[in-house]
Design goal:
The complex is a heterodimer of chains A (about 350) and B (about 325). Helices cover about 35% and strands about 20% of the residues of chain A. Chain A is α/β, with parallel strands linked by helices and about 350 residues long. Helices cover about 15% and strands about 50% of the residues of chain B. Chain B starts with a helix and ends with a strand. The chains are: A alpha/beta (about 350), B mainly beta (about 325).
Chain lengths: ~350, ~325
């Protein structure tokens, strides 16, 4: 009898403990429209990194948009309210994703000249016999090496980039070992970003020495200005070969995120010049979050500055600003590319 | 014929004879303590004949050979300690875990899922007055928030505990042994949010010093010897390492140019106590003694962790493990 009692007590205890975390561990919000709104607003409020830099009054945005939300509203209507709210962050790294739509703010390039058309490049400069090595399209154009990289999302191996920089640095004519390439053009126009690892790997082939190239700051509290001290980021020579000849990096407003980082890193090297339009920006690492109703969103959570302390969220300015003129565009000419070739040939 | 197959075949022959006629068995060693009920004489191996309704042993020749193999291992491993009160046992077990967590650094949603467990350890008992345990457990599973259709978090969990307890009192007419002592508890968790990019890995480590207690209750049921144990610990002092506030990277690792990862790791953590870190673990286990004092063990653990820095994280898990304790 006592044994049975003991078992019953143990069983009862087990059942109590088996369910008691249900009382402690719960969703922070319900999945109704008001809670979804509050969840997003609060999370962005506590984690977004550019409120001060962009002078955004997030509380005022709450006051404007909160009355537009009520429980039971249509899902697409709620989506539109949230999308409108996020749009005001003016950040290409901010998106709201539902099964039926993706919100975004692409003003960082839509309001500016495109300054690039790959069809023009392909038909009038590369021709039909250019090389494709991994994600890179390349060939020699008028004694200058030209490499086009469409997206930092496209991975490449160390050996591929070693091959490319070696190819355009070491090819010689028959007898006098003269370099036939005057320099190298790296075209990252319309490259919307991707892996920062790819950006670092590519840039490392042009590093002449270990260099302090950027500072990163991370959020360390819920306040809009709660950041860690700047953390120095370095880049150093890697791979079989470093290209130390003259380099021109071509940019336009559609260079974003990892491309923005790449361009800013390259500007630290003495043999590199950036030509074209300013990059589109994207200087914060985006993090992903989710809403109680299953939608996901992302936003910037870090700050990147140059060694001199300039925030690169708004883009990186070129050393030589060049735009494709309307006449050149109509004539099928890429003004920026031609200026880069002229520059390298003149060195 | 090697030694193992020789023993198996001999045991097989022995079992076969046993099933034909009941044979007397050697006396079972005395119980662990004079204060507790002594171990009964074991039922004969021939009892298997009486249990031939078991779904595992239908009485076929192949079954007997398998059984012989298993028992050979048990007997061989148990022989040196059979007559001793003290023991050392190696444990191995497999089980299931129902994990849950809520981590404000990641999400406003609670995640829940399923995990498979592998548990192992060493249990020492130098005499009837001490318990010394080293336990390890590894869980791998997948979890999802209820709002989502697919599991999108891969969950890894490693737990290691060392405890030393002294028997301080016997309760309930001297049938319940109460042990009190301390333990060092480590818990490492990695939650991989596969669909996230820059904040996909969330890793935590807790190393705690805890008071620990156990209640041990040996008993007989259906003429079988069992031991039920309840164990619990409550960390008082903890070294905790959590990701930084805004990302899933550890604070000390934010500067990835530094080259002393161990130093960085410990710089990332902080020492905390009950005001910020609360963990409670309790385990019920039931051990069934085989004739050679090796044991089959069924255990259930409920574990809860709450840490408020830099942002609130809570995790709980229910775990059931079934395994074997081999004396050595």
């Amino acid at each position: 009898m006592k044994l049975a009692t003991g078992f019953l007590i143990a069983l009862a205890s087990l059942l109590v403990f088996a369910s008691c975390e249900e009382a402690f561990i719960r969703d922070e919000y319900d999945d109704n429209a008001v809670d979804v709104f509050n969840s997003m607003w609060t999370t962005v409020d506590e984690n977004y990194s550019f409120f001060s830099y962009k002078n955004i009054d997030w509380d005022a945005i709450y006051d404007i948009n909160r009355p537009r939300v009520e429980d039971g509203m249509r899902r697409d209507s709620l989506f539109n309210v949230l999308a409108d709210m996020l749009f005001l962050l003016r950040d290409g790294h901010v998106n709201l994703q539902a099964g039926f739509d993706l919100s975004r703010n692409w003003e960082w390039y839509l309001d500016f000249p495109q300054n690039f058309d790959f069809t023009t490049i392909e038909r009038n400069y590369l021709g039909d016999d250019y090389d494709i090595t991994g994600p890179f399209k390349h060939r020699a154009i008028d004694s200058v090496g030209y490499i086009y990289y469409e997206s930092f999302e496209d991975d490449f191996s160390e050996s591929i980039i070693d091959y490319l920089v070696t190819l355009y640095a070491s090819r010689v004519t028959g007898n006098d070992d003269t370099l036939i390439f005057k320099g190298l053009i790296i075209d990252v126009r319309d490259n919307g970003g991707g892996s920062l690892g790819n950006a670092n790997t590519l840039a490392s082939r042009f590093a002449d020495e270990r260099r302090h190239v950027q500072n990163w700051q991370y959020k360390d509290g819920p306040g809009h200005n709660d950041f860690t001290d700047p953390v120095k980021k370095f880049i150093e020579p890697e791979g079989d070969f470093q290209y130390n000849g003259p380099v021109v990096v071509l940019t336009n407003r559609s260079c974003y995120s990892a491309t923005n980082f790449f361009v800013q890193i390259m500007k630290n090297f003495p043999n590199v010049q950036v030509m074209g339009d300013s990059t589109g920006g994207g200087g914060g690492l985006p993090i992903n979050r989710e809403l109680p109703n299953g939608w996901t969103y992302r936003f910037s959570s870090t700050v990147t500055t140059t060694v001199a302390g300039e925030n690169i969220e708004g883009g990186v300015a070129p050393d030589l600003r060049v735009n494709i003129t309307e006449e050149d565009r109509a004539a099928g000419r890429d003004t920026i590319l031609e200026e880069a070739i002229l520059l390298l040939k003149s060195l | 014929m090697n030694t193992c197959s020789f023993l198996v075949n001999n045991l097989y022959c022995y079992l076969e004879k046993s099933l034909r006629k009941k044979s007397p068995q050697p006396p079972f060693p005395k119980g662990e303590s004079k204060n507790v009920v002594s171990f009964p004489r074991t039922k004969t191996l021939g009892n298997f004949k009486n249990e031939s309704n078991s779904p595992f042993f239908k009485g076929g020749k192949g079954d007997l050979r398998n059984l012989a193999l298993i028992l050979t291992f048990f007997i061989l491993s148990a022989t040196p300690t059979q007559a001793q009160e003290k023991f050392r046992s190696f444990n191995i077990g497999f089980g299931y875990t129902l994990p849950k967590f809520f981590d404000q650094s990641f999400s406003s949603l609670r995640y829940q899922g399923h995990a498979a467990s592998v548990a192992g350890g060493l249990h020492f008992r130098k005499d009837s007055s001490t318990l010394e345990h080293i336990d390890l457990r590894f869980d791998y599973g997948q979890m999802s928030a209820f709002a989502f259709e697919f599991a999108d978090v891969n969950s890894f969990r490693i737990e290691g505990n060392y405890s030393y307890k002294k028997r301080i009192k016997d309760l309930w007419q001297d049938r319940l042994q109460w042990f009190v002592g301390g333990s060092i508890n480590t818990l490492y968790t990695l939650w991989d949010f596969s669909s996230f990019s820059n904040n996909s890995f969330n890793t935590s480590l807790y190393i705690s010093l805890s008071p620990a207690t156990s209640l041990v209750y040996p008993f007989k049921l259906w003429n079988r010897q069992f031991r039920a144990t309840y164990s619990a610990y409550l960390p008082l002092l903890t070294f905790a390492v959590r990701p930084s506030y805004g990302t899933t990277r550890l604070p000390g690792f934010l500067d990835n140019e530094r080259e002393e990862p161990v130093a960085q790791f410990f710089e990332s953590g902080s020492i905390t106590s009950l005001n910020k870190f609360f963990r409670y673990s309790n385990t019920w286990s039931l051990e069934y003694f085989l004739s050679n004092r090796n044991r089959l063990r069924l255990s259930y653990e409920w574990n809860y962790v709450r840490y408020s820095e830099p942002r609130l994280v809570q995790a709980a898990s229910h775990n059931i493990v079934i395994g074997t304790m081999f004396n050595f």
